[in-house]
Amino acid sequence: MIYVVRQGDNLYNIARAHNTTVATIVALNEIPDPDVLVVGQALVLPETPNPNRPTIDTNGYVEWYTAEIPESLIAQLRRRAPLLTYMMPFSYEVRRDGTLTPLDWGSISEIANANQSATAIVLTNIENNAFSDTLAHTILNDTTLQDLIIGAALSEASKKGAKDIHLDFEYLLAEDKQRYVEFLNRFRQRAHAQGLTISAAVPPKTSANQPGKWYQGHDYKGIGEAVDFVVIMTYEWGYSGGPPMAVSPIGPVRQVLEYTITEIPPEKVMMGQNLYGYDWTLPYKAGNPPARGLSPQQAVALARNQNAAISYDPIAEAPFFHYWSNGVEHVVWFEDARSIEAKFNLLKELKLRGISYWHMGFAFPQNWALLQEMFHVKKR
């Protein structure tokens, strides 16, 4: 269950009122200082899981920006692996000669194997640190090049013991929409022959012919028929370069997923979920420095340090707070137990395959506590 901290609360009184212990609440929520709570902070309190709770798939993308995977990220993976169906190291960039950029997984395979989590080879059309429509266009119009990429991916899957090939091709040209579906079908035939599944990440659309560079090259129906499952990127409404708002407000997320399941069977659909929020400076103006990303734990710590009460937007189903620093006003939108419970309830209502997290490394203990309480996690 979820308890929202009020003025005058302390952990001892909360624990006593709910027949639990301070130590249990501290452990579930990873509270750094039990003597300091934030008004509006959402705490998960222990509750016996329903034995009849639904079974879902979960995925955690694993991204890092250094030559070696940081120990803090490895530690989090070890801790959360029991609740992950898939771990997806991000990413192998496809090259114009049909090869893939190298990616050192460190101990990811070992952690996955120890926890019966599947891994995936994630392929992207990233070139020079950005998704490239011209790179994708070159690939999608050259079946010889496609065969080289498919072969390289299947070879890497064999080396790594991966069970899935996952394509995250973004910003495709409208003229390449059908060619991308054909590429996925070619990929599926060879992946299935090797005993692997194939999946794809797609932008959050609300109609078949939605305009815009992010959406124009993705045919939900065709992609859904070609792959074993899809990840819908239902986040980034609030983004670092845009105006302050919830990263994944429940209304737009619902709208996308309700459209999605008219094109793709719900048992193939994984809802995307951010594990982060953003700290914007105000007033917002286009061209401002980008908002700073932060984890839910960091957001609560910031509110505590700034003596700011946390508010909750019941329309967006998301927490936020304001604070001042060096004469500049800030607003922080992030995720908490209430916002993730709203997403979990939507997932159950629409009977989706599961949830996919972007990305591991952001501390959000309430997510994992509620996930365990509300679902069984499938292992593949």
Automatic annotation (TrEMBL):
Pfam families hit by this protein: Glyco_hydro_18, LysM
PROSITE patterns per UniProt: GH18_2, LYSM
Start and end residues of each GH18 domain: 56-380
SMART domains according to UniProt: Glyco_18 (SM00636), LysM (SM00257)
Keywords recorded for this protein, A-Z: Glycosidase, Hydrolase
GO biological process: carbohydrate metabolic process
Leader sequence residues: none
SUPFAM superfamilies in UniProt: (Trans)glycosidases, LysM domain
CDD domains registered for this protein in UniProt: GH18_CFLE_spore_hydrolase, LysM
Annotated GO MF terms: chitin binding; hydrolase activity, acting on glycosyl bonds; oligosaccharide binding
Domain of life, per lineage: Bacteria
Keyword GTP-binding: no
Domain LysM: residue ranges: 1-45
CC per GO annotation: endomembrane system
PANTHER family per the UniProt record, alphabetical: CHITINASE DOMAIN-CONTAINING PROTEIN 1, CHITINASE DOMAIN-CONTAINING PROTEIN 1 FAMILY MEMBER
Record's protein name: Spore gernimation protein
Taxonomic source organism: Viridibacillus arvi
